[in-house]
Amino acid sequence: MKNITNIQKFSIHDGDGIRTTVFFKGCPLKCEWCHNPETQKFEKEMQVDREKCTGCGACAVVCPNGAIHMEEGRPILDAEACVFCGKCTRFCPTGAREVIGQEYTVKELVKELMKDQMFYEESGGGVTLSGGEVMSMDMDYLLAVAKELKRQDVTLTIDTCGFVPYEKFQELLPYVNTFLYDVKVMDPELHKKYMGTDNALILENLVRLAKDGARIYIRIPTVKEVNGNEENMKETIAFLQEHDIHPAQINLLPYHDTGSGKYRKLDMEYKGTDLHAPDKEEMEALAALFINAGYKNTKIGG
Ligand code: SF4
Ligand code: SF4
């Protein structure tokens, strides 16, 4: 699988300098606060903005596969019958419909990414592959993209949740400049509750990656009700110290719910409604724990 939902230009929060970030579709975790729900499933999806849909029925008329029927003025999709040809999106007069996920060949993707080479060179930036979970994508494809970027002197950052077999990291490591590595919560039970799986593999991979000499930015999405507390941060620090891990940067990323509106368009339920970011003083106090423990390059935000 290697569907791409978005290629975002001029990103400044996904690594060093100005970057072009590629969002791949599909993730093995199910974080309650995920702000990119369109990247959770590996398969293509149809998104409908209910506020824009006027119920005109044009999509149902033009679909060559009969995959849409109207019910009480609303288009209903038979996902089994849809082949994601995009015809209904082109005929929708209000732009309410959108196919999420597009395949690019290695050549097409690299060509698109190289359009921004000038910005990479001037800002010390490059390409970030993100998601979803980019490391869950087809490895031959990822390796081909990574090798081609390296050949063209473009630095590559990988934004990962870490929940993949370590062999994948090993294969990609020679072509990666920086890993943005999510460490969400240290308590395995809480991790399971909010992410759908425990954190054993994630932490094990982090230790191995650090031992293998990777440049790592640790990213901690910080949620008051889950991990935004002294206990979790102290446990994170103890883990880093125990395993002699020296991240190039630690980023505490305050929770935000800007992605919650996307859930409705995908007929998904947003489960993060009761979650909040710690306030400014609390965030500063949490960051100070890392700084005082010797992790001077700790920042609030990306
Ligand atoms: S993408 Fe194609 S197959 Fe799917 S509903 Fe639209 S027109 Fe039909
Ligand atoms: S064509 Fe667009 S506006 Fe018309 S019913 Fe379909 S989704 Fe709604």
Short description:
It is built from 11 helices and 13 strands. The chain is of the alpha/beta class and 302 residues long.
| Named CATH architecture of the largest domain | Alpha-Beta Barrel
Oligomerization status of the protein chains:
single chain
Q: What are the segments in which pLDDT stays under 50 over at least 5 consecutive residues?
A: none
The percent range for helix content is 25-40%
The gross shape turns out to be globular
Full CATH superfamily name of the largest domain: Aldolase class I
Domain module tally: 2
Q: Strands of the largest sheet, in order across it?
A: 7-1-2-8-9-10-11-12-13
Q: Which CATH class of the largest domain applies here?
A: Alpha Beta
**Mind describing the biggest β-sheet?**
9 strands, mixed
Distance between the termini: 28 Å
- From the 3D structure, determine the CATH topology of the largest domain: TIM Barrel
What Rg do the Cα atoms give?
Answer: 21 Å
The small molecules bound here are: iron/sulfur cluster
Strand share of the residues? 15-25%
Individual helix count: 11
- Overall strand count: 13
